[in-house]
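Quick one: structure for this chain?
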Amino acid sequence: MAETKRVGDVMMSNFTKVDGVMKVSDALNMMRGKNINAVLVEPRDDTDVYGIMTLKDIARKVIANRRKLHEAHVYEIMSKPVLSVNFDMPIPFAARFLTNFNVSYAMVIENNVVTGIVSLNGIVGMWED
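Got it. Here's what it folds into:
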């Protein structure tokens, strides 16, 4: 029987963290330049948690509402808190976890440190029977 792939095998380790006060226009330009679809939003302090902003958030909460990208801040449209999964979680469980919560992304945690982002697209793209 083939070894089950783990989240760490399919995660994106080239993730980016941004400050929530960043303008959406600046974040989008950075995302385009790095060819990424989501960014983690840093906690404000030790009592706060991570957020996430995706291209879908920009489309739904800024463009669809005819807001200006340079007038909106990341913190206004991000989702928070971000779900997290363990680096060693088997892929089928990660896929079920994300779909149960109807989200496309989760932070990957290894030894209490954020080491990546896993996405449903990444899971499906790397899946082999």
